[in-house]
Amino acid sequence: MPFDVIAFEVGRIYFEMKFSPHLILLTLLASLPGLNATSSSPTSLPLRPTPVPSPYNHGRSHYVSPPRTKTCYVTALGGGKDDSAGILSAAKSCNNGGNIALLDAQYTISRPLDLTFLNAVDFIIEGQVSFTPDVNYWSTNSFQYKYQDTALFWQFGGQDVNIYGGGTLNGNGQAWWDAMASDSDVVRPILLGLMGLKGGSVSNLKMKNPPNWFNFVANSSDIIFDSMTLTSASNNSNPAHNSDGWDTYRSDAVTIQNSYVSNNDDCVSFKPNSTNILVQNMQCINSHGISVGSLGQYIGEVDIVENIYIYNASMTTSSDAARIKVWPGISPSSTSTSSGGGSGYVKNVTYNGMHDTSVNYAIELTQCYGQKDLTLCNQYPSSMIIEDILFENFSGTSKKYDPTVGTLVCSSPHVCKNIVAKNINITNPSGKTAKWTCKNVDNSTLSINCA
Ligand SMILES: *[C@@H]1O[C@H](CO)[C@@H](O)[C@H](O)[C@H]1NC(C)=O
Ligand SMILES: *[C@@H]1O[C@H](CO)[C@@H](O)[C@H](O)[C@H]1NC(C)=O
Ligand SMILES: *[C@@H]1O[C@H](CO)[C@@H](O)[C@H](O)[C@H]1NC(C)=O
Ligand SMILES: *[C@@H]1O[C@H](CO)[C@@H](O)[C@H](O)[C@H]1NC(C)=O
Ligand SMILES: *[C@@H]1O[C@H](CO)[C@@H](O)[C@H](O)[C@H]1NC(C)=O
Ligand SMILES: *[C@@H]1O[C@H](CO)[C@@H](O)[C@H](O)[C@H]1NC(C)=O
Ligand SMILES: *[C@@H]1O[C@H](CO)[C@@H](O)[C@H](O)[C@H]1NC(C)=O
Ligand SMILES: *[C@@H]1O[C@H](CO)[C@@H](O)[C@H](O)[C@H]1NC(C)=O
Question: Membrane-spanning residues where (predicted)?
Fold first, then answer.
């Protein structure tokens, strides 16, 4: 029996074997993605990253995914044809322990994709997943939620899901920003939704130009985002809108780390009922800051944001670096249910190590959000308590309101407790002593110059 050394490539899989021609043929047939969608030897796939919260953690053990035992390859249809059905069927076939591999250069999603049934799967995205910029279609076909009228192209939920691979999610936001010029209420989908996911990681991906927020993490727990690159920029005079990097809502134990965000809204925003959230080693460019809130907007609702730790963030040309925004109370005669008056609390939030470059405010804490009339704010103080807040180790520069570098405004001294600022060194272009606006806040624990 003659033995040959044969090397050949099938798609992305490279074989070099020293076997009989019969065995080669069998191996080849079993490995061809088109002939057999599942394979038990995903050796050609990139290794799954195993991001863990570091250097800080939120005090819980992080979930661990078992290895995946099968792989479903999704072949891109190409030519702008919709790949959502292919992705859905791969997700069903390889659910409960498999990989869903998107290894082609370009996938298109033009139909809503509901992936909330997942259990123990990895999505490996090496190329670009692009969402069709059909503003009218998505306005009625995206997944829609009541909270802040959010809409989604696709949604991931279930348990134990990892998404990674070095690829790009492209929201093609320009079409929506252009549409907003004539209709500011146009439905604009969020680029990635984790909806009811318990245990998950999203890492080593690029995200660009979302019509709305980049990431919405809702009803989820034990999630880590690591090594993400988020960029949003308009090509014309219609600016990008609401391009928040991450919004957490009704979620617990979420880590966001080692990531770069260039946008023009919040870098990260902690919305109602965000608990045990850790954000560290971040670079945020042009953002509105790493923000708690806004909270307390709706009468009768109870909003809780608790145990938030932000460590080592560089904030460049941001409107704010550290930000806490809470609505005040509302006059009993008011008929509005959405301009303050909600209750709850913001408790145990630490910003440790913010490195600012030309920000407007290094710290903006307000309990008078949405109420320009300070007298009215003080007359009807917030029903949401802000307590146990620490701002420590801030350095860098502030520019716009020189010499004022930050502002801390509570609606009454009774509803803001234990607000501490330590080792804050923010300088101005003018070189004048930095000034801070402080209202209704105990300044004995603030080592800043309350002017
Ligand atoms: C703007 O144009 C550049 C270059 O053509 C492109 O890479 C980018 O995706 C465009 N941005 C938007 C929001 O469409
Ligand atoms: C979260 O879960 C609640 C309760 O099941 C549900 O009403 C809501 O639609 C879910 N998602 C969002 C974004 O609120
Ligand atoms: C802070 O974060 C940056 C990334 O933005 C990273 O390069 C640096 O090593 C981190 N520093 C510390 C002390 O963790
Ligand atoms: C947030 O938690 C509080 C306390 O458990 C609850 O009353 C409130 O309804 C929750 N809000 C949301 C939006 O889930
Ligand atoms: C405050 O939050 C931090 C970090 O999220 C956590 O480690 C700590 O235990 C919390 N403190 C209290 C008193 O709950
Ligand atoms: C701020 O930095 C100092 C000096 O590096 C360090 O001792 C302190 O623990 C830091 N603050 C926090 C909250 O970690
Ligand atoms: C504050 O920062 C400036 C500019 O980086 C530096 O020159 C100065 O020594 C710092 N002051 C303190 C007290 O650390
Ligand atoms: C704190 O507030 C008191 C009373 O308003 C004021 O006299 C004092 O100068 C302030 N201290 C600082 C450090 O800003």
Answer: none
Best probe residue, ligand 5, of 274, 307, 418 (max atoms within 8 Å of C-beta): 307
Where does the pLDDT of residue 62 fall: very low under 50, low under 70, confident under 90, or very high at 90 and above?
A: confident
Q: What is the mean pLDDT of residues 402-424?
A: 98
Q: What is the Cα–Cα distance from 222 to 308, expressed in whole angstroms?
A: 14
Whole-number pLDDT of residue 89: 98
CB 129 within 8 A of CB 84: no
- What is the 191 CA–ligand 1 centroid distance (Å)? 16
- Report residue 449 as tokens: 């110059």
Residue 5 token pair: 């050394």
147 pocket-lining for ligand 2 (C-beta < 6 Å): yes
What residue type is 134 in one-letter code? D
Q: What confidence score (pLDDT) does residue 60 get?
A: 84
Q: Which DSSP helix (H) or strand (E) runs through 162?
A: strand 154-164
Ligand number nearest CA of 275 is 5
Of the listed 22, 58, 288, 414, which one is catalytic? 288
Instruction: Examine the residue annotation and report whether 288 is marked as an active-site residue of this protein.
Output: yes
Ligand 1 site-directed mutation target among 235, 241, 264, most atoms within 8 Å of CB: 235
pLDDT, tens only, 312-358: 999 999 999 999 999 999 999 999 998 999 999 999 999 999 999 99
pLDDT value, residue 19: 35
Q: Establish whether residue 442 lines the binding site of ligand 8, counting it when its CB lies within 6 angstroms of any ligand atom.
A: no
Instruction: Calculate what percentage of the chain has a pLDDT beyond 70.
Output: 90
According to DSSP, the β-strands at 302-316 and 343-359 are parallel
